[in-house]
Structures are given as C-alpha cells and as structure tokens.
Amino acid sequence: MHGLINRSIQNYFCANYGHALWSAVATRAGLGFTEFEAMLTYPDHVTPAVLDAVCTVLERPRAEVMEDVGTFLVAQPGYAAVRRLLRFGGVSFRDFLQSLDELPDRTRLALSELRLPRIELCEEPDGQYLLICEAPLVGYGYLMMGVLRAMADDYGALVALEHCGRSEGIETLKIILIEADFSEGRSFELGARA
C-alpha cells in the first residue's frame, strides 16, 4: 500500500493521541520502525496490521477509527491539498457528489503512484444517493463517510449518512442530502495562495 495512506493514519493518530502512544501502535503492529515514509510503498498486510493495532490501543472499533481518519484528511489544516482536490469536484455539495466517480482519476493526476479504490455514485429515484466503494481494506466505506461528513460541513450542507454494510469486498453508503444550503460553509478559492 502507498506510504501516504499509512503516513496519514500515523499523522491522525499522533495529532490526536501523541507520539508516545504511536510507538505502542508500531510495536503492536510489528513494524520495526515508528515513522512511515509517505513516498514509499509498503506490503499490503502492513496497513491492516496498523489499523488493528490502533483499534486495540484505543479500544475502539475500526469503523469509528476509519471515519475519524476520513474526517481528519479533510478537516486538518495540514491536509489542505486533500480538501483542495476534493473541492475541485464542484461549487455545491451536490456537484461534489456527482464528481465522486472521478476521484480516483483526479487523485492519480495529483499523485500518479496512488491508486484509490473505485467508487460509484448512484442517484436513487427519491433523491437519495448510494455510494458504492470497492473496499479492499475493511472499513474503507467508513473512511469515505468521514470524508463526506467533513465535506458536507465544508460546503455548508446538511446530510445524513448511513453505512449499509459490506459484501464481497464492496461497502455501500447511503447519502441523504437534507438541505444543500444549511449553513454558510467554508470559503474556497480555485487558485492557491502562496
């Protein structure tokens, strides 16, 4: 798995629980080191081992941890590039949802080595949405829930999110857009400032 993913989990953990406790996670996961390099690739078994260690150390289920990591990736000031990449999806939360299918390709434009799992948005006749996530990593749907929750806040939208379960490597989310303009949302400019 790409080191950027592992490094993001590490950064989330250290920002919220400290570097000393991260050492316990690294030991429990059997890493043999404490710092992930963002631009390296790690064997596929490393990320689940780290997540299992995080859940054990925090005594929290993976679903909660993954959702928190997803929120962290959007809301944490140090991850402004992730927020910017996501905001390129459109000027409204509805536009953003409609652009989710393109997210893996948009990510590859920014970082060609990073391969995100395929996601597909389906609009239901009642105006609700289903987000179908290929989830080779158990809990990826929950990570996307955290991303969606943070992005809804970013756009000022009021949404209800529900994880509908996992089957054969697919996790499905239900998205109910209650009110598109619930609050002001955060400001966003297309051009980056120096």
From TrEMBL:
Residues 2-162 form the Heme NO-binding domain. InterPro entries: H-NOX_domain_sf (IPR038158), Heme_NO-bd (IPR011644), NO_sig/Golgi_transp_ligand-bd (IPR024096). This is Heme NO-binding domain-containing protein. It comes from Sulfitobacter dubius.
